[in-house]
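Quick one: structure for this chain?
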Amino acid sequence: MTAQAKGSAAIPASHGAVVPALAIAAAMVSQYAGAAFAKHLFPLVGAEGVVALRVGLSALLLAAFTRPWRALPSRADIPNLLLYGLTLGCMNLLIYRAFARIPIGIAVSIEVMGPLAVVLLSSRRARDFLWVACAGFGLWLLLPLRGSTSALDPAGIAYAAGAAFCWALYIVFGKRASQSQGSGTVAWGMLAASAFIVPIGAASAGAALLSPFVLMAGLAVAVLSSAAPYTLEMIALRRLPRRVFGILVSSSPAVAALAGFVVLGERLAGMQWLGIALVILACGATAASAGQH
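Got it. Here's what it folds into:
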């Protein structure tokens, strides 16, 4: 093969890496813009009501567009789909409860520790623990562990930590489920999540969920924060190793903080922005080094 032919053959491979990377970037922008907008609905239906609208309407939209029943899951695939749906629903519920109590950028900085843990478990080198220390220092700058840091709601911090654990499981079970169900994975996962999230939201918000304004706003949140980003993420998960996925989502705290600033006017102190930067650096560097051997 000539050098020119070799160069031509390499183009599709590079394009193959660009598409899932763009998919994740678009997913993050959509997800956190939708989350910032959703925070305006908290006074009307609460975090639980917003999550019920987000997950329930997303499940209906995805079912209508993808018609997952055309390829029913096998009995062996059902456990992974149920676990994927369970972690998906819990992740949404916990992070929205965190959003109701602390700034979005800080909540996501804590939540992104989940993907960091995933890539750390695939790496055995001592230098990766330096990046853990970097992330820990970043969290120290973010959280109220110093006298100069403004107080944050402890419950909000705990909810964000719970969402981090669920995000780690979401990556693991989402990867497994996507390998068997393909494009129907997100739809089946959303249906499984809605089976327990919608009753929780309905019990909390009651008839307010049926207000025309709330339903229309909830539909916008469902498209922006769930249907679009999770579909895009599933496209990326099918084409990328988990460590590369971790590198790309490491910028989530910055995207979330910018969305909180633009949509909600949430302002962070300089040290908190530095903490976010350190968390991003640690997550990206750990993911990059996790599979180099």
